[in-house]
């Protein structure tokens, strides 16, 4: 089962990457059975916490989002995550030959690398059930660092390249990931200007 890889990547990543490489899962099945499921964790948790739990700012005044606003932002976040994983997977495949990766008949390795490397970020979404900005920022920072390490660790195994090239390949991919992140932030601002921004309410 694809979801079993989520636990394996935390406990024994090298063996799990080798298993992932041998699977050659079709990108569509990988997306449906893994990415669509795990990417939903953060938006669902964020909806519950911002619409029903709320968070305090300074003077302990409870702040919440309206249910409609929380739902809209959660759906947009979910879609942004799906597009981001796909874009990163495409970039991995696109740059593969440049860094000496072995050519595959099924273009699944790039999507697999992107999806499974993002596993810590997906799981960090549970932290959003406790909507405190500094706590959430710390959890997601740790998850992002571990995701970057997973990608660096998995590139030589899944893409079949030398360990020395993995550092350059991983650095290029992290740059792409940052561009994707900035693009989603800019996209959020643009969408907010069309009336889909957060609507706050006091709890």
TrEMBL record:
Keywords: Membrane, Transmembrane, Transmembrane helix. The lineage of its organism: Bacteria, Pseudomonadati, Pseudomonadota, Gammaproteobacteria, Pseudomonadales. This is Yip1 domain-containing protein. It is a multi-pass membrane protein. One of its GO terms (cellular component) is membrane. It is found in: Membrane. Residues 7-183 form the Yip1 domain. InterPro entries: Yip1_dom. The chain crosses the membrane at residues 31-55, 75-96, 108-128, 134-152, 172-194. Pfam families: Yip1 (PF04893). The keyword Ribosomal protein does not apply.
């Amino acid at each position: 089962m694809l979801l079993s890889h989520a636990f394996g990547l935390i406990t024994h990543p090298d063996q799990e990457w080798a298993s992932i490489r041998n699977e050659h899962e079709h990108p569509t099945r990988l997306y449906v059975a893994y990415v669509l499921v795990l990417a939903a964790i953060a938006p669902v948790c964020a909806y519950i916490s911002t619409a029903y739990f709320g968070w305090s700012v300074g003077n302990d005044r409870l702040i919440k989002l309206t249910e409609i606003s929380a739902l809209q932002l959660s759906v947009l976040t979910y879609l942004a995550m799906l597009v981001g994983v796909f874009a990163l997977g495409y970039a991995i495949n696109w740059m593969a030959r440049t860094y000496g990766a072995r050519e595959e008949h099924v273009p699944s390795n790039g999507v697999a690398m992107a999806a499974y490397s993002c596993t810590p970020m997906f799981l960090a979404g549970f932290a959003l059930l406790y909507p405190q900005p500094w706590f959430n920022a710390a959890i997601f920072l740790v998850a992002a660092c571990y995701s970057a390490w997973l990608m660096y660790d998995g590139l030589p195994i899944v893409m079949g390249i030398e360990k020395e090239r993995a550092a350059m390949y991983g650095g290029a991919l992290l740059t792409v990931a940052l561009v994707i992140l900035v693009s989603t932030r800019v996209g959020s601002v643009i969408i907010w200007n069309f009336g889909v921004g957060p609507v706050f309410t006091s709890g």
